[in-house]
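Example A, followed by Example B.
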Amino acid sequence: MRFDFSDEESRRYARNAGLPEVGWPGQGRWRAARVLVVGAGGIGSACLFYLAAAGVGYIGIADGDLVELSNLQRQILHRVADLGRRKVESAREALRALNPHCQIEIYDNRLDAANLPEVIMGYDLVLDASDNFPTRFLVADYCWGEKIPLIAAAATGFLGQLLAVIPGPGNPCYRCFLPEPPVAEAVPGARQIGILGAVAGVMGTLQAVEALKLLLGRESEVAGRFLSYDALTCRFHFITRTRRPNCPGCGQSPGS
């Protein structure tokens, strides 16, 4: 039974549907899903490629930057010919070339308190692949209040981090783990200390895997834990995240 998939789609997604945990019903869920990815950089590149390849039907991309030469070391959505272009336009073109069955919506601006509600409205799941803490906290707070599941990933140097925030009674929010944004000078970014491009790819791929699992109705192993990855030692480490009664984010929020 192939539902209403075309012959081309049936061939394209045959390896997905061959998984007992997915099947054609699961493929249908992916096609009906609406996922927003914040950031079309290194993590976002890998994540977006795999979401589109899997057949997620509606993908939003929010990013306000231009493609620069230093991006190409890790941001595999973009090419030399894209230098100077808007990242969202380059990303949309690359994803359409990979899978024309996906509808791609782009938001060519940095998210702020004014535009965030309009951008996120209507999405089933949000993936944070941004590169700064103000955006991460803004997105996390809004998703928690609107009860939208969030998967956040980050990478710097040889290290990566991943967590999922699932609004609901008893679940920890983003601020339960990190109550306030750290001082910018205390957390140097890739521009200051560098980043191994493949590490960003690992984290973006893991982010896509967790997203696809959630869209199937399965639980995420990082919903109540924090995953860290050390590429130099090839080790993954989990830290349990717990609900904080005095949390500034979820103490009195609707998602609690």
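Example B, a separate protein, is given below in the same form.
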Amino acid sequence: MPTMSQILIPATTQMLTGLGRCLDKLEAHCAAKSIDPAVFLTARLYPDMFAFTRQVQIACDFAGGAAARLAGEAVPGWPDDEVTLADVKARVQKTLAFVQALPASAMDADEDGLLTLKLGRNAPEMQMPRKTYLLDVVMPNFYFHITTAYGILRHNGLEIGKGDYLARAIPRG
């Protein structure tokens, strides 16, 4: 069975790299078509869903927060103040760098040990095993928000496909 770092680091690296490539394509698309990138950053799939920028922020928060919690580090307190495409791209890169900088050995320590956390702003504190947190909370939520961000871009006309989403060029090792 893979360790927690073997689950978290490659998955978040692959998906955030793919998101970064989609953002590069978005930048080129907006420049070529004379479209204000804010049109995409504020787009949503349905009125009661979060907009694109918020989807990216939440995906980054799950990746960075999980890496920090599992490594016994402080969860990054990044403000959700991204308003430009450059800001959103920087958030993705900052998250990638943060996840990759934490020691895998710290993430893998005591996988059955308990984490104390709140699953929502108004939720009470609770405890759960570290690996349960990773597999049942972090990864499904991370993939949901990454996929929703991709769906918003695609729905609004950005020509991206599954290879962009999956960042196929990343070698497995």
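On Example B: Strands lie at 114-118, 125-129.
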